[in-house]
Specification:
0% strand; transmembrane helix; mainly alpha; globular; Amino acid/polyamine transporter I
């Protein structure tokens, strides 16, 4: 009798908290404050409200995902839930969209931002050559991919170390802000709600900018098979980690405002670097390094998540069976990781940061919305299903409404219609692959409904 090979359960409560924090805190908190403030019409009070609202929405979404993760204890995250709730076709579209487009795009985006912060300091006063930055991006993808192939324990240890370093940097900025407030530097926080209020479109875009900084809260749903006592640890880790992130994000934004005016924040390409130049000019080089560390942690977590998604899809028969194989010694989904590395590396060659951010945002939020719909469908279709953790039903509907707002915000960002068309083309390619794999023709009314929806 053959012994079945499974993933090892090595992620506990504290390592789970570190993992979520390590993935969420990437470049967003260092880059997004200017975008949120700009879209809030320089209204300081409204920008802080939006940061808080984004945190609450992330918490609501994470609690919905916690219910799904404790109910269906299988790696694969949204793919598995959509397949269970909505059927094979939506799950297939989600999987292949993530496999070919959104997953590699996120990896490439993080790698390019990492290389930007690592390489640019060596070229003061001018732009670093694109070839060097892209070579560095490819190198970091390979390094992270090799680490993910070799040992899951290394990934958890690296993620924990980087999470501590990130929190140390954010704590430094937050404590500095508290000190400045104690010294009476509150001029930018007085009459915080004075000024113009954003319209619906601007509010949606500001909300989207903030949600970008909170992205990654669903990481544990892709690693359920590697979590110790998932029924207990998933809800606890989710609540703890997102609460910590919300508090630190608010303190960091307040710290920025004690030193910089709203207009200075909006005009800065990297507000954290401008803040460091103003407060610690002799050690301002620490911030670009800290941003690079944050991005590396997100890149590591993203590679970990993408490999598990491909692994789970292959086990369900929606990807080639070789991708579901595990490394015989390390019990890691090495073939799935290698495929992710190859596709992400190819994406680096023609891509740039802005186009990647715009190109795949709409599609990403659409797929998150499908997962929320799956939760609601399963609540009514399978009411007697054993659920170790159960969120309030209004949380699910709130998450779905917030998802619609985020997609509206992403639509504001996508000023170039060709970007959204690219996302649509990617989804229709998935329809074609599904029809070919299942040897069937999709009826015209399904394709028309899909076009209308997407």
């Amino acid at each position: 009798m053959e012994e079945r090979v499974n993933l090892r359960r090595i992620i506990g409560y504290f390592s789970g908290v570190n993992f979520i924090i390590g993935v969420i805190i990437g470049s967003g908190i260092f880059m997004s404050p200017g975008g949120v403030l700009r879209c809030s019409q320089l209204n300081v009070g409204m920008s802080l409200v939006i940061w808080t609202a984004c945190g609450i929405v992330s918490m609501l979404g994470a609690l919905c995902f916690a219910e799904l993760g404790t109910t269906f204890q299988s790696s694969g995250g949204e793919y598995f839930y959509i397949k269970r709730g909505l059927g094979s076709l939506p799950a297939f579209i989600f999987l292949w969209t993530g496999f070919l487009f959104t997953g590699p795009a996120i990896m490439t985006l993080n790698a390019l931002m990492f290389s930007e912060h690592v390489i640019q300091p060596f070229f003061p006063g001018c732009h670093a050559p694109e070839a060097i930055k892209k070579s560095a991006a490819i190198a970091v993808i390979l390094i992270v991919g090799i680490i993910n192939c070799l040992n899951t324990k290394w990934i958890v240890v690296i993620q924990s170390i980087f999470s501590v370093l990130k929190m140390a940097v954010l704590a430094t900025i937050a404590i500095s802000g508290i000190v400045h407030l104690a010294l009476g530097k509150t001029q930018n926080l007085q009459r915080a709600f004075d000024g113009d209020l954003p319209n619906v479109s601007q509010f949606g875009e500001a909300f989207f900018q903030g949600m970008f900084a909170y992205g990654g809260w669903n990481i544990l749903n892709f690693t359920v098979e590697e979590i110790k006592e998932p029924s207990k640890n998933i809800p606890r880790t989710v609540f703890t980690s997102i609460t910590i992130v919300i508090v630190f994000y608010l303190l960091v934004n307040i710290s920025y405002l004690t030193v910089l005016s709203p207009r200075e924040i909006v005009s800065s390409a990297a507000v954290s670097v401008t803040w460091a130049d103003r407060t610690i000019p002799t050690a301002s080089w620490v911030i670009p390094i800290s941003v690079a560390i944050s991005i590396f942690g997100s890149l590591n977590g993203g590679m970990f998540m993408l490999g598990r998604l491909n692994y789970a899809g292959s086990k369900q028969g929606h990807l080639p069976s070789i991708i579901s194989m595990l490394h015989v010694n390390y019990l890691t989904p090495a073939p799935a990781m290698i495929i992710s590395i190859i596709i992400s590396t190819i994406f680096v060659i023609p891509s740039e940061i802005l186009s990647l951010t715009n190109y795949f945002t709409f599609c990403t939020w659409l797929l998150v919305g499908l997962t929320t719909v799956s939760l609601i469908v399963l609540r009514f279709r399978e009411p007697k299903l054993h659920r170790p953790y159960k969120s309030f039903i209004f949380v699910s509907f709130s998450g779905l409404s917030s998802n619609r707002l985020c997609r509206g915000g992403s639509g504001c960002v996508l000023s170039d219609c060709s970007n959204r068309t690219g996302s649509e083309n990617g989804i229709f390619l998935c329809f074609a692959i599904y029809a070919k794999q299942h040897d069937c023709l999709l009826p015209p009314h399904i394709l028309q409904a899909a076009y209308t929806t997407f």
